[in-house]
Amino acid sequence: MEALFAALEGTALAQILRSSRWLYAGVNAAHIFAIALLIGSVIPLNLRLLGVWRGISREAVVRVLAPVAASGLILALLTGPLLFAVRAREYSGVEFLQLKLLFIAVGVLSTLALCWTHGFLLKDAPRARLAGHAILSTVCWLGALVCGRLIAFAGD
Question: How many degrees, rounded to 5, is the angle at CA 73 between CA 69 and CA 74?
């Protein structure tokens, strides 16, 4: 695995990111923007699934916020590996990164399972299932956010 991470660090793209302060800063800013889109849409969506804002239809909230969350997730999945590649060997051993990836996997898989079972608009989903998902989702995405931030403070 060490050889794989060393090879990743040795790629031209990783070397360019390491040597270009502004390019790295741009990728980092894009990652932060992606997280803002993701968390900023998932939390209100989860609150609606928990019963907040009952005057606004669940379908309307899902139609607006789910694509924003998906866009944020896609951008984060594109920029995160670029940031990782810069110091892959170092980051691979950081437990906060491993926990962050676990939170992301559970968050994504639970959402896919919910949509697979009840459709994108969640029309037939029972309230208890929605509430359970909303709690799990909130824990996962806030957990990923906190762990991602703690990566900067891990290590030596």
Answer: 120
Instruction: Note the pLDDT tens digit of each residue in 31-90.
Output: 999 999 999 999 999 999 999 999 999 999 999 999 999 999 999 999 999 999 999 999
Determine the Cα–Cα distance for residues 79 and 75; give it in Å rounded to an integer: 6
Supply the DSSP string of 69-138, one letter for each residue.
HHHHHHHHHHHHHHHHHHTHHHHHT-HHHHHHHHHHHHHHHHHHHHHHHH-TT-TT--HHHHHHHHHHHH
C-alpha 38/C-alpha 83 separation (Å) is: 18
8 A C-beta contact, residue 118 and residue 125: yes
pTM listed for this prediction: 0.93
